[in-house]
TrEMBL record:
Organism per entry: Pseudoduganella ginsengisoli
Source domain of life: Bacteria
Protein known as: Aminotransferase class III-fold pyridoxal phosphate-dependent enzyme
Record-level GO cellular component terms: cytosol
Keyword Transferase applies: yes
Amino acid sequence: MTTHDTHTLRELDHAHYLHPFTDHKALGEKGVRVMVRGEGIYLWDSEGNKVLDGMSGLWCVAIGYGRSTMTKAISEQIDTLPFYNSFFNTTTVPAVNLAHRLSQLAPPGFKHVFFTGSGSEANDTNVRMVRRYWDLLGYPDRHVIISRHNAYHGSTMAGASLGGMSGMHEQGGLPIPGIVHIGQPNYYESGAGMTREEFGVQAASWLEKKILDVGADKVAAFIAEPVQGAGGVVIPPDTYWPEIRRICDKYGILLIADEVITGFGRLGRWFASEPYKPDLITFAKGVTSGYIPLGGVMVSDRVADVLIRQGGEFNHGFTYSGHPVACAAALENLRIIESENLVGRVAGETGAYLKQKFTALADHPLVGVAETSGFVAGLNLVKRKAENVHQQVAFDADLAVGMVCRAHMFNNGVIMRAVGDRMIIAPPLVMTHAQIDEMVGLIRHALDLTLEEVK
Ligand code: PLP
């Protein structure tokens, strides 16, 4: 028997549902919010409240909710063939077509894809794949992967180890061996006394230092998100990525771009990392707009040639690698993104409009910095503003101002995420100018309410 009654749902949720990344003590007191419907960029909860989804679900619903052609593509595939695997010399029609389509969208030099069920599984795949690559080339000692503090690369053992979230490392004895971290290119945190450009070069130099500490002959790869998402939309200085590529080249190490958030148009390119020529690209989320789970790794010719020609069999795979329904959903989702020119719009008019409107929030008394990159954006809540961002005064962490603000956002019609006192959004790529105006208006109203509460 299923129920739709909110009170009963809350009780059942409390009794049975162990949620990801949720403080269950706090949840018990408040009760969970039950989302029941989505249309376009809006969601409705079980009590009839409407909210504008500034986070695209969890950074994924690029094309918005309720797209009828997605329903059609998914249900037709379920009718035709709901499941078959890709192991042992078999494949399915949508899996092949999606592999082909992705090879067309990926940067030059990427002809292969390995499918997984999620971004975490894709990053686990990366760990095994880069170690296999170096083994096959006769360098089994090259097994260390360098990542960054405050990065998010998933929740599996390898994904959470690659990630640099101390709260995750504290639980379960992470990181696993062979994964080390360097600082993140967070100008506001670490760039005092420098221009953004100078700081970008310095932050990249931490990679070279770590390579030399570990020993260049032991390092397999460096992994990073083009813009750190879950860490708080950390937008690196323009000088950072070219330096990272130069350093990877200097020591011959592989560069893995984790594009689980940034892939498929969010930063105004199909793959944001294209200019700095990665060797592997992790994707998930936007590939299906979250309608059905799917992830994977785009594999460059450099890696694929070794895996295929020298390796033969890669003893790795998931039941749902290349799931035909997920692949059918991805094909339709990518068709929509292309036919509505969402990538071009984010790179052009809607991206520019979001930047203009969102950065104007910096005039609010609570906002120290407001910035965007494509269709991700973040603002810093500060106790005292100053022109020099490094002289701004932060709120006492115990006040949890970000969480106060997040509650005002949610209760007043817009979903915005808090990472400490940094408020972030990653709205659906289909947003119109009028919807951007509406979203920024709702954000400003919630900032006013936050100011009243914390001043
Ligand atoms: N990598 C990045 C950059 C992510 O943001 C995420 C999820 O937010 C993941 C990997 C993990 O993806 P999933 O939750 O699908 O396992």
